[in-house]
Amino acid sequence: MKAHEIDAIFDDGGSLDGVVDWSKGRRVNQPSTRLSVELPRRLSEALEAEAKRAGLTPEEVIRVLISDHLA
Fold it and tell me: Which SUPFAM superfamilies does the protein's record reference (predicted)?
């Protein structure tokens, strides 16, 4: 979809809900904070397994889980 088409939808008071998959949206250029978390071994192993299954890094899995539950 081109920018002028998006502008036309907004100008007409429309919504992009039928066009955009909002579940895949990300906020970019947000300041970040480094955290250190100690996990029991079983949770660490579960995190590693989930990351491998999803094709992500453990840090990305943590970000997704926190975002899903707190955002």
Answer: Ribbon-helix-helix
pLDDT tens per residue, range 17-69: 887 888 877 778 888 889 999 999 999 999 999 999 999 999 999 999 998 88
Q: Position of tokens 């579960």?
A: 46
Burial of 56 (0-12, 13-18, 19+ CB in 10 A): middle
- Using the Cα atoms of residue 55, residue 58, residue 60 and residue 64 in order, give the sign of their dihedral: positive
Task: Please state, in angstroms and as integers, the Cα–Cα distance from residue 70 to each residue in 15, 59, 62, following that order.
Answer: 25, 16, 12
